[in-house]
Batch of 2 targets.
Target 1
Amino acid sequence: MEQKLLAKMIRRCQKGQSEAFAWLLQQYGPDLYAYFLRTSGSRTDAEDLLQDLFVKLLLKIRQYKHEYRFKNWLFRVAANLVRDRFRDRGHRSAVQSIDSDWLEGSRPMATGAAPVLSPVQQLQKSELLDQLQHALGKLPDQQREIILLRHYGGLSFKQLAEHFDIPLNTALAQVHRGLKKLRRLMSENET
Amino acid sequence: MKPDNGNKELHEILNQWSVNPDHREKIIREINAGDALLDSFDRERPGPQPQLLARIQQRINAHLADSAALRPRKRRILLPLTAAAAVIIAAALVSIWVNRPSPPTGESAAPAMLAQSADITEQELGLWELAALQDETDDVINNVALIEAIASS
C-alpha cells in the first residue's frame, strides 16, 4: 500500500470524512476480521469486535501520530479491544468450530478467480481450518495472542514485548514455542 | 504474513544473545515454518460478509453525522458560557483592584519602611524610635505647660 495515500486517508479520517473511513474499512477490515475470528474463536464475536473497533477508531484516530506504522497501531487497538472484551466476560470464548460454514456464510479472502471446489474438497478444507482453530485454542492465551498479533498485525518482537509488557526474549520465546506447538498439533491431527 | 523486518529482527536479537549457531538456525527454521503454516491457511480464510462491512459503514456515517450536528449546538451553548465567565473574571479583577490594601503612610510607616531598608542598622532604628518618643514626650510637656499657663491666667 502506498504510504502517501495511507497518510492522506488517515488525515481525512482525522477530519471526520466518511469516505476515508470506508477506505480504511476496505483496506484493513478483512485482516482485522480474520484476527478477531482467530482470537475469539467465534464469528459473532468477530463481527461485534470489528464493529466496535471502527466505532472506537472514530474517536481514537485523532490520537494517531504518523511516526508509527498505522497497521501496527491499529492492531494494538484491536488487541486491547479483545483483551477488554474477554476480561469483562471473565473468560475466553470457547474455541468453536468456526470454519465449518464459512463457505456458505462468508466470502473467501483470496482474490482472483477462486477454484470451484467439489463438496468433498470443501469439507476437507473446512476440516483443516477447524483443526487450526482447535490447535490455536490449545495454546496458552498470551501465546496465542502474541502469535496472532504478530501474524495479522505485523508487530515486531520489540513491539510485542512493549504491548504485552514482557521482556524481548520472552516475546521471542513465546512466538517460537507457540508456532512449534501449533505445527506439532496440526501434524498430530494429520496422522 | 509476518513483520516486514521479521527475519532481520530475529537475526539481530539472536546475535545479541550470542546464541549457539546451530541452535540459532533451528529457532529461525522453526519460526519460519510456523509462519508458513499460518500463511497457508490465510489463502483460504473466511473474510467478513459484505453486509457486515455495509453495517459498519452505516454506523460510522451515523456517528459522523451526529458529531457534525452536535458541533453547532455545542458552540451555541459554549459561546454564552464563555462570555459569562469572562464577565465574572473581569468583575472579580476590578473588585480585587478596588479593595487592594492602601500603602502605609506617615510616621507610623517610617520605622517599618526604614527597617526594610538594607542600609539601616538596629541601633539607628532604636535612635529613630527614641527620637519619636522624645517628640511625643515633648508634646505632652508642652501641653501640660500650656494647660498650667491657662489655669494660672
Target 2
Amino acid sequence: MKELLEGSQAIAKIVKLCKPGVISAYPITPQTHIVEELAQMKADGQLNAEFINVESEHSAASVVLGAVATGVRAFTASSSQGLIYMSEVLFNIAGMRLPVVLTCANRALSAPISIWNDHQDSISLRDTGWIQFYPESIQEAVDFHLIAYRLGEDKTVMLPVMICIDGYILTHGIEVVDMPTQEEVDKFLPIYQPPYKLDVDNPLTLGHLADPEYYMETRYAIQETHKEVIKLIPSVIQEFSKIFGRSYNGLIEEYRTKDAERVIVAMGSVCGTIKEVVDELRTKGKKVGLLKILCYRPFPTGEIYEALKNVSRVAVVDRALSLGSFAPLATEIKATFFNKKKKPKVISSFIVGLGGRDITKNSIKEIFRLLTTKERSLEFIDLKPELLKESYG
Amino acid sequence: MFGPLISKPGTSKKNKTGSWRTGLKPKFLQKNCIACKMCLLLCPEGCISGEEKNTFICDYDYCKGCGICAAVCPKQDIEMVKEE
C-alpha cells in the first residue's frame, strides 16, 4: 500500500515486517527516529521482538552479534561516531559470518563535530567484510532492507549487510512509499534457519583463536563469498520483483549512459539531483549520463567496466576522502580500468558535500563543466577558500 | 565459501599439549608420598591423578613441565628430571 512516510518511519516499518527477534541500538542523530519508532512499536505491543536497551553502540553491536549467533534474526542502526564505536564488533560479526542487518544513517565524522550528511562513516568501514548498499531513495532503502536479510541469510553467503542511507535526506525526508504487506514479506523472507548456532545441546565455539595455520583461509573465504554475492544478487532481485513488482539491477544503475560522452559516477541520494541535471543537459543536446553504484561491497567491477568502457570522460563523485591519498570511490573506478584496452580517456575525481554542505544542481553542473580533457586527480567542489589560511592566528 | 569458522568443544583434551615441554619433566618417586594432594590441586593442567599414598602419577600427554608439583611437594617426593 502506498503511504506518505518519513524515511526513518518507513525503515522501522519494514524492519518490523522482517520480524527480527532482537533489536538493539543506541540513539544517535540522524539515526534516532528509526530506533525511536521501533521502540514505540514495541511499547505499543505491535512488535514481537526483544528490544534491548544498551549503554553504547559497542554494546548494541555486541548484542546483535550474540543474538544472531543463537540463531535469531537481529537488527541495529547507527551513525557516524556510533558506527565507528561499533567498528571492532563489526569486524567480528563479519568474521563470525553472522547475517546482521544494520542501517547506517550516513553522517560526517568528528572533529569538528558535524551531525550532517556525508559518507565518511560507512566508507571508513568498507574493509570490514560487510556487504554495503547505498540506496538513492526511501523506496530503495525500504526494498534493500528486505533484500539485505534475504541475501545475508542465504546459506552460501552468511554475511552481514549495511544499508547506508544519507542522513536527513533519506532518514528525515518524506516520500510516498509502497509498503509491502506481511504476507508478501513472509513469502520473500522465510524464517531464519541458520546453518550453525549456539546451542547447549550441541556446543560449539564461534570467533575463537585462529593461529597462522588457519587465519588466512577465513579471510580468503569472505573474499570469495563477496564474488559469489555479485552473482547471487540478480537472482534475489528477480524473486523480489516477482513478489513486489519493482525491479533493480541491484549492483549499479545506468541512467542515460548508452550514448553518453560524459558520465558522473556517484552513490546515494545525490544521484537524484544528478539525474535532474542530466535530464536538463540532455534537452540542450549534451550527451551526459549517470552511473549509480548501488552495491559498493562487493564492488561490481565487471558491471562498472561494461557500463563505462565506451564513455570518453568520467567524473567520480565522492562524499568521503582517504585523507592524505585519493577519494575512495575514484580510486576503485580507476583500478577497474587499469591495464584495460577499452577505457575512458579521462577519469576525474571530485569531492562534494562533506559535512552536509548542500549539493545543488549548480554543484553538479560545475562538475560537468570541469570534466574536460584535463584529468583532475582530486578537486573539491563548492570549497570556500576565504575560510582557509596558511598559518594559525 | 567458508573458512575454518567454528570449533567443536573438547580441544583441550584433543590437543596433546605435552609436546610443548622443553627439557624437564616431573618424576613421581612414590617413596615418601603422604597423599596430601598438593601436586594434584596446584597442577595448572589438571593432569595429575592419584588417591592413596605413593600412587600419584601425571599424564605426560598434557604436562608442560612447569615444575609446580615438584616445588610444592612437602616430602620432596617429586623431582624434575631431564627429558629422555
